[in-house]
Design a protein that fits this description.
This protein has about 375 residues and is of the alpha/beta class. It contains 16 helices and seven strands. The longest helix has 24 residues.
Length: about 375
């Protein structure tokens, strides 16, 4: 097997395994920009890209990890190493070899690895009464891709991401569903040659993790961000918002708005409907972020402008404007007027067969409270 795969046999405690030096390539990555992204480690943290090949798609005790690909940076060079399990009896040595390649202060980088690759490896360590490598952190790129790039992806599979984001198209690649059978045939005495395609497949997965990190790092650079896709910036802003990093979320939204209203279409006379709605959502997201930052006057002005422009979010904008007028400006008359404008839009929507029950309930309670406050003021006067 080792000769077929171009690797060497390593003998360790409890058996042996095959080690393959998969390659080294120049792949610079801006760790400073990468570290600014939500959920990503700082620039001084070692990164270990990890991908596994297994005998099944479950994480139960019957599923075996037989190939682990790892990659890490040495300066600007990205180095990859693969470990292959020759037989189940050699698993102790194989797992020991994997552990030796994962530093304690490193972060693992995977794709759906938090839900599959790593839990399965941990299970195998436990089955062998061993402790899994104590990595410092885990960066699963699947949630990041879904949160930032899903608007321009058919699905979130790694191959789709490679084509759509990285411009990479694999040729002659083995299908994932074929991989367990190839290895099981080998254990039954079959040839080792088909396993070479599995090793190439795994190596491409590890390389794609590194490329995806480098691609994502451009969004962490405030200058490069000005030229990023508008939808990417909206998704990134939401990621910052979930971590309560509202100033950075606002910077992303401002970058998306840098092209002005004409780019968004939300004030155009006859804009494309999709562009108009996207622009409205972007402006509304910015108004909410301003409010979270305590910049209430700016938030109120943004809601008033969005409401006056009409569109699908006008009713919501009038309600938010009513909140700002009531609690920030203490303008009860203005707040009641905004609520009435929202009520008129909700009524029109109901007549068109598109009722908004939650919004209508909010308006009913809000109008009653505002009218009660106005009556108390009049009596006091």
């Amino acid at each position: 097997m080792a000769r077929t795969l171009g690797g060497t046999v390593v003998i360790g405690g409890g058996g042996s395994y095959v080690r393959i030096e998969a390659g080294i390539e120049q792949l610079a990555i801006d760790r400073g920009s990468l570290g600014r992204l939500p959920g990503h480690p700082g620039p001084d943290v070692p990164l270990i890209c990890l991908d596994t090949e297994t005998t099944g798609l479950g994480t139960a005790v019957g599923t075996l990890v037989f190939l682990v690909g790892l990659g890490w940076w040495e300066g600007a060079a990205f180095r990859r190493v693969q470990l292959v399990l020759p037989d189940e009896a050699d698993e102790a040595a194989f797992l020991e070899g994997v552990a030796e390649l994962i530093p304690r202060d490193a972060w693992l980088v995977t794709y759906n690895g938090r839900g599959f690759d790593w839990p399965l490896l941990v299970t195998r360590y436990r089955m062998g009464r061993r402790t899994a490598p104590p990595a410092a952190g885990h960066l699963d790129l699947l949630p990041f891709v879904r949160g930032v790039f899903r608007h321009r992806l058919q699905d979130a599979r790694l191959r789709t991401v490679e084509r759509s984001l990285l411009g990479v198209r694999r040729t002659g690649d083995v299908e994932s569903w074929q991989i367990p059978g190839i290895y099981l045939d080998l254990l039954r005495g079959g040839p080792a040659e088909p396993l070479r395609a599995v090793a190439r497949h795994n190596d491409e997965d590890v390389r794609s993790l590194a490329r995806l990190l480098a691609y994502g790092a451009t969004l962490g650079d405030p200058v490069s961000r000005l030229h990023a896709d508008q939808g990417d910036l909206i998704g990134l802003a939401r990621g910052y918002g979930r971590q309560r990093r509202h100033a950075e979320a606002l910077a992303c939204l401002d970058a998306a708005l840098a092209g002005g209203p004409d780019r968004l279409g939300w004030r155009d006379a006859q804009p494309a409907m999709a562009d108009r709605r996207r622009g409205e959502r972007l402006v509304a997201e910015r108004a909410r972020t301003l409010r979270r930052l305590g910049r209430l006057p700016e938030a109120l002005e943004t809601w008033l402008a969005l409401a006056a422009a009409g569109g699908s979010l006008a009713a919501t904008a009038w309600i938010e404007a009513a909140k700002g007028l009531e609690w920030h400006r203490h303008d009860i008359v203005g707040a009641l007027g905004a609520a009435e404008a929202a009520r008129a839009l909700a009524e029109r929507s109901r007549q068109l067969g598109r009722p908004l029950p939650i919004l209508e309930g909010d308006l009913l309670r809000r109008r009653r409270r505002l009218m009660a406050r106005m009556a108390r003021r009049q009596r006091a006067a």
